[in-house]
Specification:
Layout (H helix, E strand, L loop, with lengths): L1 E5 L4 H12 L3 E5 L7 H11 L4 E3 L6 H10 L4 E4 L6 H6 L1 H21 L4 E7 L22 H19 L4 E7 L1 E3 L18 H10 L5 E4 L11 E2 L1 E3 H17 L2 E7 L5 E2 H12 L5 E4 L14 H7 L7 H14 L7
Parallel strand pairs: 1-2, 1-4, 2-3, 4-5, 5-6, 6-11, 7-10, 8-13
Antiparallel strand pairs: 9-12
Helix pairs in contact: 1-2, 1-8, 3-5, 5-6, 7-11, 9-11
Bound molecules: UDP-4-deoxy-4-formamido-beta-L-arabinopyranose.
Length: about 325
Amino acid sequence: MNILVTGGAGYIGTHTLVELLNRGHGAVVIDNFTNSRPESLRRVREITGKSFALYAVDVCDEEALSRAFSENAIDCVIHFAGLKAVGESCERPLAYYRNNLDGMMSLLSAMGRHGVKKLVFSSSATVYRSDVPMPVDEDSPLGSINPYGWTKFMCEQMLRDVVAARPDWSVVLLRYFNPIGAHESGRIGEDPSGIPNNLMPFITQTALGRRPALRIFGNDYPTRDGTGVRDYIHVVDLALGHVAAIEYAEKNAGCEAFNLGTGQGYSVLDLVGAFERVNGVAVPCEIAPRRAGDPATVYSRVEKAEKMLGWRATRTLEEMCRDAWRWQVKNPNGFAE
Ligand code: WQD
C-alpha cells in the first residue's frame, strides 16, 4: 500500500517508516519539522535503501496537504503529527487544541476530498482515566487530566463520529503506553529538544554526562518501591503495531481502539537498575517531589491487539535499555550534528 505518514520525521514516525518500507510499502511523508530534523529522514533512507516523497508542510495547511493527496495515490494514512508534551500542554492549552484538533480536521477534510478512507491514528494511554483499576483495557473509562490527553480524546471522538457517518471508512486508534528504545542500527532514536520530559532520554543523557543526575519524581507512591510504574514498550514493537494496524484497516471497516503496550509495569527504579546493569554505566539519581499530574501506576491489557491485529510486543526491557543507550552513545547530540 502507499501510506501517507504525517509527522513521519519524529521518533515513532521514523521507526514506523523503516518497518513499512522494509515490507515493500510506499510512503509519502508530511512534516513541518517543528519537533524533528530532516536528518532523521535521511537516515531512514540510509537504513532501508528506499526513498519516499516528502512535503515539508504543516498538517494544518489544508491546501498544502491537499497537494500531497492529489500528487500521490494514497491508500491509507498514519497520523502522527501533533504536539505531545503533557507539561507544555498545561502551559499552552490553546496551542495544543489549535494544532492537534485543527490538524485532525484538516487531514480528515483532505482525505474526504480525495476518497481516502483508511486512517491509523497515533493516540495515547493518556485518554484513559488514571483513577481506575489497572491494567486498563480498551473499554476502561476515558477522560484525561491534561490538555494533551484531552486533544487525543477529542480526536478519537471526532473519528468515531466520522465513521458513524461514513461506515465504509476504516479507522484504527492506537493507544500507546510508554515507547522507549531505538532501532538496532543506532542511526535513529528519540531526540527530544531541550530538557527531556520523558524518563528514558533523561536517563541516557545523564549516563552520558550531559545531565548531572536523574531527578526521580517521587518515591512515596503506593507501588513496590515507591516510584512510578509504567508500561514501557520498545519503539520497534510499537512500529510493528502500526504495520499490523494498516493491514487490519485494509480488511476491516469501522473504528477500533487497541492498546499498544506490553502488559507489564516497571517502576522508575526498575528501569534505572536494568539500564545500569545492561550497559555497565552509572545513572546518578536524586529523589525529587512528585510531578503534578503523574498517576502512580499505568499499564495495559494487551489481549485485544493480539487477537484482532495478530500483534504483540516481544522485545524485553533489557533490549529497550541496550538499544536506547547505543543510539545515545552514537549520537551524543541526537540528529543535531
Ligand atoms: C515515566 C515515569 C515519571 C522523567 C508521557 C505522556 C504519554 C506519552 C509518554 C506521548 C513517571 C518518571 C520521568 C524524569 C522521573 N507521551 N520520571 N523523572 O508521563 O508516563 O507519559 O510520556 O504520547 O502520553 O503522558 O512518561 O517518561 O514522562 O514518565 O522520575 O525526569 O518516569 O514520574 O513515573 P509518562 P514519562
